[in-house]
Amino acid sequence: MGIKLTARLQKIADQVTIGHRVADIGTDHGYIPIYLLKNNISPFVIAGDINERPLRCAENNIEANNLVNSIETRLGSGLSILQPKEVDTVIVAGMGGLLISELIDNSKEIAQNLSTLIFQPMQAQAELREYLVNNDFIIERDILVKEDRHIYEIIVAKPGKQEILDPICYEVGFHINSNPRPLAIEFIAKKIKTAKEIIQNISENASESSFEKLKEMKNKLKRFEEVLLCLQR
Prior knowledge:
Strand order of the largest sheet: 3-2-1-4-5-7-6
CATH superfamily of the largest domain: Vaccinia Virus protein VP39
Structural class: alpha/beta
Distance between the termini: 47 Å
CATH topology of the largest domain: Rossmann fold
Helix content: 40-55%
Low-confidence stretches: none
Number of strands: 7
C-alpha cells in the first residue's frame, strides 16, 4: 500500500531531518509516519493521538504497510505521551496555534530537549510564533504551501533565543523571503484583504471600545502593505 501525501503533508514531511526519530502528534490516519518510514527518512516514529478512533485508523494503515515494528502508536494528549530525549523531532499539524502553545507549555521539559519542532497551525499563527519566542525557541523556517485554494503556514523551530527585529514577523513569519516570491505575495495580499475587511467592519460598527482595535488593524494594514512592497521589488 503506497502513501501519497497531500501538498500540505508532503511539505511537513520534507522538514524532517534524515535519521531523526520522530513523534507525530495528532497523527490522524498515520500518513506522515508511514511516509517517513517508507522513504527511509526516519528509523522510528511514534504516532500519537488523543482520540482512540483516529489512532485505530492509523494502526490499521500501519499494519497494512507492514510497519508495526517501526511505528509505535500511543493514546494521549500532546507531548505528554513522550519521554525526554525519546525522539529528535516532533510534528504537530492541523491544530490551532493556541492549542499547540498549550501542548508545548504542558510538556516544556520534553520540548526543550528536542532538536526540531515542526508545527502547522490552522489559525493563531502569530500567537504561536510569539509564544515560541517568549519561551526560548528559535524559529528557523517559515514555510508557505498552497493546497487547493488555501495557503498553509509551517513553522520549524528549535530551542534557543530568537532575536526580534520587527513585531510584524509574528504575523508574516521571520523568513517570508525564503518562500517562492509569487506565493509570498499572494499570502501577504490575502492578509491585506482580510485587514481591510476587518477595518471596514469595525468602522461600520464603531464604538468607544473598538477605537483601539481599529487603530491596531490600521497599523497592521500599513505594515502588511510595506511587506508587500518589499516583496514586489
